[in-house]
Inverse folding.
């Protein structure tokens, strides 16, 4: 059935909104009694996270068990099971939410399902043990609104993730989806574009170029064939913002691309996505098919004269293909290598035609900017960076997950309030923002309000939103080495500084972590990093020295310690460690001797053993086997 | 006049047309920014501009990072520094990085003293290797009949890739693997011999280092020259004599025919003949074939294959065998001049003197690398004895001359030996694109019409344009001809032919830019198009200076037909001077 007008679209919205109303809890938080069929709740919905993380923890089985249990209890007419996108709190997944009382169950296992159904759904008694335990006061929190993890968040790009069924376009429409498109099509396309400009939205892929301006440039180049490209080649290690949006709210991307097409007068959309995101691909495919069926893609969209359609293109997962010119070459079937800009894709992009490339998160903001108005959006954030930003919080942090905060939030708020602080009560050491292109920020940077400019000024960058927290057990030289290994592996090999320079930096870092470094190496690193940053061809190369430069700037003492004292204080650099058995503690049980794969341990039974440091491969096996804590690592 | 852009480079005011690169703008005021990956053989389609080596970076005020001057266009009011401390440091570091992944065997490298990387290292005053000791990428080595690949020396400038894909449309070379392991190689790291490589060698012609070089035959030749049991015959190609002087510091475009003959005599060749003789012979045969097909066409034969295409260029022959096996009966069956020469030398010349062909070594001196491969084609041998034993390039000959202590510049002129040393001006112009066509037209006109050609020069088919077309009035018959150089232009023609849309009678194709004068065996042009132009001009000067300027008027050719061959396309000519083609499509 094709939707031919904005009114017809609104009809669908109203119908869907009814079903969704059970999930609209924002205004009634706190006043809500526990839902339960025996308590008289007429309709209950069970929301199960269908994101990749929770799926990996058997959320599909949980859904299956819910269906079976509801069937067995004969209550399928009163209770719905909805598979949603990611709730963000991946640390505690799989997540199950009961509506309308907004109960947030964490770490749910398939065996817990029956208890939830009988005790909560039917009996109206929450399953306490599955509720989130506040680490602060040790109390269970039932409503996610009261959890620190969510309290400071503001979900704009993620507005529908964890709320709607991403495979059902009606639910998206029910939350005012496609309204922005419908309204845009009735307006002059320049006006719509002006709204995007006025919102102050900037590219969420990392560089932060103003989206409206990008569209305006693309609009200026006239051609019969023009392209709107969605850059879904999310490649930062540990980042999964775009993946979650595509998995949880694929229609927002479809809608935003169509609006972009209308604004820049393009009729073809292409989504470049890595093939290793099968779930996101599947959900996008479903969304595109459903949108086509409704006439939200294709010819004469919503009864207008505007035509637009979207195709999905697969990438093999090269990091450099997130760079827009490399991405375009990859889509053209060529080697994924960047070329010099200008010409910018807006002038000569895909197949030499004017092309506008936007990142997934950027696009996810578009519909809501238009429905709520550019002023609403630009009121959020800092002076130069408007709106919110999604971050993938990972590393040594209590609440690993996906968060969205207004620009201007400080790193401290993110790490301590939302993230719940460093894991196991360890001491915070650094946070890497911007993935391999970013830098390591320290304690002294924690109170900077985050935006594009402030992070760059601090020696890091916004990047796409990866945020990895490190504690005292992390060796900063090894961290720099880790990121450099990544860029060396992902360099396309086109320009000399990136191809050879990063390799040489990695070699120097490796030497340092092996205790073979010299003080002159530190200058060499600095020199090389500066030249690479200054002379590499594309964004990947130009930013690849950032982890080295920032750790050199902020943790120079650790480098010096590695070089001069051959010491790694975090005990991460194996070559610098010495394993010794303290004779006073050793009982001569031979557990270590038997476990040593290198046969480096000698000793007679019931007499203290010794480790031959020349044979020891520093695997740590003996430490884990020793019952008496007799083996020390220095 | 278009509005000029004003900018400052190293404090010097510069005014350039919009769209000018900083590199070119700097050049216009005498600032030579060093480059490596960049090459722009202006006037031909040879261009590589990936901005990947980063040697040419400059500082642009107000810009965050350094800009590659080869690919950054000038803008109004730009302030550029090409020599600031920041630039000098970056440039030197980049060159040092290249050296750190480059073998350290310059002294024995075939490119020593002609290597662009080496020149940069000297220019940047690099006296030690700060990044030495790091891992070196190991890449494939291969010596084919024509090209020697030692990709360890590759600095990934991508010139060869550009030429192989954009200029030649052969598409054999491209980047494989990534990062530090990136290699320029055929797909799946195949060997050249397992690909569509035509051995045109243009990759060699543009390679700045010793990664791609010719297969060297000089030692083999020296051995033969010193073997008293061998009779060694030289036959230098038309394009060699206008280029070899460059190797000895002579001006590009110097005609060194006389010195060349003397040098070959001094080197110890038993006979110094001339491939130009073979070129005249080619015109006789190919001309006869043109006339034969034209007459059939005019007589209403629907099956006659037109256009007839030239077949002198061995890379072009490889190209159509690989890519157009369905069109093998369009090109002329005439062998190339060098092979015709070999076939006649090892039959007529040997027989007349009662010499066993096994004793004779025919060496062709060619501007070309594909000729090395051509010599190895089985159909050009008798019982395993090749008509032309092997081929050396212009560069190899220059090396031999230097090695033999011959001061080339001081040599007196001498003539080629007879009887296979006499040639016409028509043969001389074989060296330039359009030359074979012009030579053929001179003979075809006179033989076809039986009339005197009023004007010898067919300037319509001269020059560096990729595809040249002309209609020649042959006594009332409008003969439509077309001349193409570089294989990408050949591909355009062949694709049209396949679709039945190629409306010409005669087509000339040469694989190299500008024809043989731009051949891959010639002294390196290092991106200077003026050199190719000077060589082409010399070729036409050589023609003008000749007493005989039409192949069919060459008295030795006439004598050869009277004595031995009979008629063009006659039984013996067919046997010795014509060949057939093979389907070499790679499945």
């Amino acid at each position: 059935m094709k939707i031919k007008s904005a009114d017809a679209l609104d009809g669908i919205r109203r119908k869907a909104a009814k079903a969704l109303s059970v999930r609209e809890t924002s205004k009634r938080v706190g006043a809500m009694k526990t839902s339960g069929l025996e308590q008289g709740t007429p309709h209950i919905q069970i929301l199960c996270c269908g994101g990749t993380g929770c799926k990996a923890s058997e959320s599909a089985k949980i859904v299956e068990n819910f269906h079976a249990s509801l069937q067995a209890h004969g209550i399928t007419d009163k209770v719905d099971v909805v598979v949603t996108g990611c709730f963000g709190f991946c640390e505690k997944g799989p997540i199950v939410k009961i509506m309308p009382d907004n109960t947030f169950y964490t770490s749910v296992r398939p065996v817990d399902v029956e208890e939830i159904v009988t005790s909560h759904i039917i009996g109206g008694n929450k399953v306490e043990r599955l509720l989130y335990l506040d680490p602060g006061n040790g109390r269970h929190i039932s409503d996610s609104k009261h959890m620190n993890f969510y309290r400071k968040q503001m979900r704009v790009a993620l507005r529908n993730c964890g709320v709607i069924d991403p495979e059902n376009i009606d639910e998206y429409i029910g939350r005012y989806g496609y309204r922005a498109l419908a309204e845009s099509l009735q307006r002059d396309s320049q006006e719509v574009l002006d709204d995007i400009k006025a919102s102050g939205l900037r590219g969420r892929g990392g560089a932060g170029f103003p989206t409206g301006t990008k569209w305006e440039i693309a609009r200026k180049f006239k051609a019969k064939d023009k392209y709107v490209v969605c850059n879904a080649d999310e490649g930062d290690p540990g980042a999964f913002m775009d993946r979650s949006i595509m998995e949880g709210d694929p229609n927002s991307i479809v809608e935003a691309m169509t609006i972009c097409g209308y604004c820049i007068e393009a009729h073809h959309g292409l989504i470049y996505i890595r093939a290793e995101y099968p779930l996101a691909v599947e959900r996008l495919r479903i969304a595109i098919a459903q949108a086509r069926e409704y006439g939200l893609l294709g010819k004469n969209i919503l009864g207008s004269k505007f035509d637009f359609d979207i195709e999905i293109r697969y990438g093999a997962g090269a990091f450099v293909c997130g760079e827009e010119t490399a991405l375009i070459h990859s889509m053209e079937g060529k080697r994924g290598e960047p070329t010099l800009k200008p010409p910018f894709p807006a002038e000569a992009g895909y197949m030499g035609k004017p092309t506008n490339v936007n990142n997934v998160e950027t696009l996810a903001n578009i519909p809501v900017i238009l429905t709520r108005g550019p002023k609403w959006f630009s009121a959020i954030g800092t002076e130069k960076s408007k709106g919110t930003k999604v971050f993938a919080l990972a590393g040594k942090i209590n609440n690993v997950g996906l968060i969205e905060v207004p620009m201007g939030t400080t790193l401290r708020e993110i790490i301590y309030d939302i993230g719940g602080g460093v894991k196991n009560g360890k001491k915070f050491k650094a946070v890497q923002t911007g993935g391999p292109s970013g830098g390591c920020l320290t304690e002294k940077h924690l109170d900077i309000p985050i935006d594009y400019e402030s992070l760059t000024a601090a020696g890091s960058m916004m990047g796409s939103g990866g945020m990895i927290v490190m504690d005292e057990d992390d060796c900063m030289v090894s961290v720099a080495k880790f990121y450099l290994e990544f860029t060396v592996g992902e360099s396309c090999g086109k320009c000399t500084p990136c191809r050879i320079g990063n390799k040489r930096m990695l070699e120097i870092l490796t030497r340092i972590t092996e205790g073979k470094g010299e003080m002159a190496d530190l200058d060499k690193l600095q020199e090389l990093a500066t030249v690479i940053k200054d002379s590499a061809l594309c964004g990947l190369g130009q930013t690849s020295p950032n982890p080295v430069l920032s750790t050199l700037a902020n943790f120079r003492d650790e480098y010096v310690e590695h070089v001069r004292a051959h010491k790694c204080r975090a005990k991460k650099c194996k070559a610098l460690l010495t394993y010794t058995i303290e004779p006073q503690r050793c009982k001569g049980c031979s557990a270590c001797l038997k476990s040593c794969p290198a046969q480096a341990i000698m000793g007679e039974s019931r007499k203290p053993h010794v480790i031959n440091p020349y044979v020891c491969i520093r695997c740590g096996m003996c430490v884990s086997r020793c019952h008496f804590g007799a083996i020390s690592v220095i | 006049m278009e509005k000029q852009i004003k900018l400052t480079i190293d404090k010097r005011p510069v005014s350039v047309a919009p769209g000018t690169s900083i590199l070119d703008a700097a050049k216009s005021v005498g600032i030579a920014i060093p480059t490596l990956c960049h090459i722009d053989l202006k006037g031909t389609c040879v261009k590589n501009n990936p901005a990947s080596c980063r040697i040419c970076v400059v500082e642009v005020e107000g810009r965050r990072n350094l800009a590659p001057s080869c690919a950054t266009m000038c803008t109004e009011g730009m302030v550029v520094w090409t020599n600031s401390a920041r630039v000098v440091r970056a440039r030197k570091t980049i060159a040092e990085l290249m050296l750190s992944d480059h073998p350290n065997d310059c002294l024995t490298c075939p490119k020593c003293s002609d290597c662009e990387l080496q020149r940069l290292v000297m220019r940047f005053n690099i006296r030690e290797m700060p990044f030495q000791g790091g891992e070196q990428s190991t890449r494939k080595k291969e010596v084919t009949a024509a090209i020697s690949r030692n990709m360890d020396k590759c600095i990934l400038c991508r010139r060869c890739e550009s030429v192989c894909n954009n200029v030649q449309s052969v598409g054999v070379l491209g980047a494989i693997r990534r990062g530090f392991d990136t290699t320029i190689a055929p797909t799946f790291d195949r060997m050249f011999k397992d690909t569509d490589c035509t051995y045109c060698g243009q990759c060699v012609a543009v390679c700045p280092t010793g990664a791609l070089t010719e297969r060297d035959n000089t030692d083999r030749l020296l051995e033969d020259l010193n073997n008293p049991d061998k009779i060694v015959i030289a036959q230098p190609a038309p394009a060699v004599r206008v280029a070899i002087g460059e190797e000895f510091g002579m001006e590009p475009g110097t005609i060194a025919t006389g010195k060349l003959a003397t040098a070959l005599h001094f080197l110890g060749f038993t006979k110094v003949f001339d491939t130009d003789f073979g070129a005249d012979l080619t015109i006789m045969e190919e001309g006869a074939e043109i006339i034969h097909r034209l007459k059939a066409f005019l007589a209403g034969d629907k099956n006659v294959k037109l256009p007839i295409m030239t077949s002198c260029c061995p890379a072009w022959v490889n190209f159509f065998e690989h890519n157009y096996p369905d069109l093998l009966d369009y090109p002329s069956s005439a062998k190339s001049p060098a092979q015709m020469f070999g076939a006649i030398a090892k039959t007529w010349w040997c027989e007349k003197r009662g010499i066993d062909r096994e004793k004779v070594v025919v060496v062709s001196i060619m501007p070309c690398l594909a000729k090395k491969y051509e010599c190895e084609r089985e159909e050009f041998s008798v019982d395993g004895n090749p008509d032309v034993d092997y081929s050396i390039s212009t560069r190899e000959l220059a090396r031999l001359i230097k090695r033999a202590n011959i001061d080339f510049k001081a040599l007196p002129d001498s003539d080629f030996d007879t009887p296979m040393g006499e040639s016409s001006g028509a043969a001389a112009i074989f060296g330039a694109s359009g030359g074979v066509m012009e030579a053929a037209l001179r003979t075809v006109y006179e033989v076809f019409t039986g009339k005197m050609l009023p004007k010898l020069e067919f300037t319509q088919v001269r020059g560096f344009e990729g595809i040249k077309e002309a209609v020649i009035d042959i006594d009332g018959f409008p003969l439509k001809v077309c001349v193409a150089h570089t294989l990408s232009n050949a591909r355009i023609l062949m694709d049209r032919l396949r679709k039945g849309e190629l409306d010409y009678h005669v087509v000339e194709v040469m694989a190299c830019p500008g024809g043989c004068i731009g051949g891959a065996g010639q002294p390196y042009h290092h991106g200077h198009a003026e050199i190719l132009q000077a060589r082409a001009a010399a070729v036409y000067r050589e023609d003008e200076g000749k007493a005989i300027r039409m192949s069919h008027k060459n008295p030795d050719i006439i004598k050869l037909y009277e004595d031995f061959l009979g008629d063009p396309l006659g039984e013996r000519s067919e046997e010795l001077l014509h060949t057939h083609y093979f389907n070499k499509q790679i499945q």
Q: What stands out?
A: The longest strand of chain A covers residues 388-395. Residues 577-633 of chain A form a domain with the Alpha-Beta Plaits fold (CATH 3.30.70.20). Chain A touches chain B at residues 318, 335, 337, 339-340, 342, 488-497, 499-501, 503-504, 507, 524, 527-528, 531, 533-537, 542 (CB under 8 Å). Chain A has a mean pLDDT of 93.
